Every structure is written in structure tokens, then in C-alpha cells.
């Protein structure tokens, strides 16, 4: 039961963190402007499309790369959009760090046949 209690405490701590508060503030700012929302959404969808192709080891066309770079240029010069993406990155990094910490702690709990996958 203690592990569940700690997980709930961690969730509360995350919600109260400066990183999460900044993320929600910057997200609300982007969402309040239709143009900013559309720009960030297009950038993130194109970014996801390219990442997915790379994970599937598919070739990414020069056109798609250039489109991503164009969208990134627009996002990076827009203060609200840039602030949102930076805040999103900080939250993602924090969550990733926590996942790594938990993953290291439970690495011996891998099912039979999967124990050598991290080697």
C-alpha cells in the first residue's frame, strides 16, 4: 500500500511543481489565440509524423524536413508558442527522468525472456 500512497504523493507533487504550473499557464495562453493554437498544432503534428517515420525506419522526404523547419521557424519567433514548447519540454524531461528512475528500480522484475533486453 505504501507504493500506491507514494505514487499519489508524486502525482500531487508533479501537479504543484513550477514546471507543471508554467506548462498550464503557457498552454492556456496558446489555446486562447486560434492562430497560435493552429501553428503549434501543425508543428507538433509534422514533428510527430517525422518521428514516427524515423521509428519505422522509413525515409523522410526533403520536403517534409523543410516543412518542419519552416514551421519551427514560425514557432520559434512567436513568444507564446515558443514559451509553450519550452514548458512542454521541461515537463516531458521531468516525467522521463521519473520513468527512468522507476525503470531502474524495477529492472529485476522483468518477465522471463525479457531480462537481457536492457543489456
Structure description:
This protein has helices spanning 2-16, 18-31, 34-55, 62-77, 79-105. It contains 5 helices and no strands. α3 packs antiparallel against α4 (62-77). By secondary structure, it is mostly helical. 79% of the residues lie in helices and 0% in strands.
For this entry, what is the oligomeric state of its chains? Answer: single chain
Question: How much beta, percentage-wise?
Answer: under 5%
Average pLDDT rating: 91
Q: What is the overall shape?
A: flat
What is the H/E string?
HHHHH
Low-confidence stretches: none
Keywords, separated by commas or semicolons:
119 residues; mainly alpha; 5 helices; 79% helix; flat
Provide a short characterization of the protein structure.
By secondary structure, this protein is mainly alpha-helical. The chain has helices at residues 2-16, 18-31, 34-55, 62-77, 79-105.
Please render the helix and strand layout as text.
Layout: H1 2-16, H2 18-31, H3 34-55, H4 62-77, H5 79-105
